Amino acid sequence: MVEIYVDADACPVKDETVRVAQRHGLKVYMVSDGGVRPHPDPLVQVVVVPQGADAADDWIAQHIGPGDIAVTNDIPLADRCIKAGSRALRPNGEAFSEETIGMTLATRDLMTSLRETGQITGGPRPFSKQDRSQFLNTLETLVQAAKRNPA
After folding, report:
1. C-alpha–C-alpha distance, residues 104 and 49, integer Å
2. How far apart are CA 18 and CA 30, in angstroms?
3. What is the largest CA-CA distance in the chain?
4. What CATH code is carried by the domain that includes residue 41?
5. Domain interval for residue 139
6. Which residues face 11 on adjacent strands?
7. Backbone angles phi, psi at 135, to 5 degrees
8. What's the total number of domains in the chain?
9. Sequence-ordered list of residues with C-beta below 8 angstroms from that of 32, at least 6 positions apart, any chain
10. What is the C-alpha to C-alpha distance for residues 79 and 109, in angstroms, rounded to an integer?
11. Per-residue DSSP letters for 57-121?
């Protein structure tokens, strides 16, 4: 059975994830180091991990399996999930894949370096309604693909 793992600390699409999961009867794990409210749906499990930089990422990487889906903005976590045979997508609807994760990691490292040297300032653009819509479409597509071919 496909399960969805949400890196929930700063995730803007928790409610959308739950709606898609409810439609398909899928278990959702909302993983954070606190601050996520319990959910009344028995398919939603809130997992509180100890505080630490990568505690939620580590929990997700240890529990996610082939065919599961991760929702995260964390590129190294997405890489770990893909290596575990799962699917991963960002809250803006951008899906990670085996084909793109290497370049995405390299770009992340380059941008980190440029920010550290002051050559680039600022962050990502604000989250939009279009991002939310794209997320819903991509998650639905990934869920349907995972249900057809779980591994």
Report:
1. 27
2. 10
3. 48
4. 3.40.50
5. 3-146
6. none
7. -60, -50
8. 1
9. 7, 8, 9, 46, 47, 48, 49, 56
10. 13
11. HHHHHHH--TT-EEE-S-HHHHHHHHHTT-EEE-TTSPEE-TTTHHHHHHHHHHHHHHHHTTSS-
Output the tens digit of pLDDT for each of the chain's 151 residues.
Answer: 899 999 998 899 999 999 999 999 999 999 999 888 889 999 999 999 998 888 999 999 999 999 999 999 998 999 999 999 999 999 999 999 888 877 776 666 666 676 677 777 666 678 899 999 999 999 999 999 998 886 6
- The structure tokens listed for 31 are 């993983």
Distance, in Å, from the CA atom of 126 to the CA atom of 128, rounded to the nearest integer, reads 6
CA distance 105 to 74: 10
**Of 11, 2, 6, 9, the residue nearest 92 (C-alpha):** 11
Residue 151 within a domain: no
Please classify residue 45 by burial: count the beta carbons closer than 10 Å to its beta carbon, then call 0-12 exposed, 13-18 middle and 19+ buried.
Answer: middle
Interatomic CA distance for residues 73 and 33, integer angstroms? 16
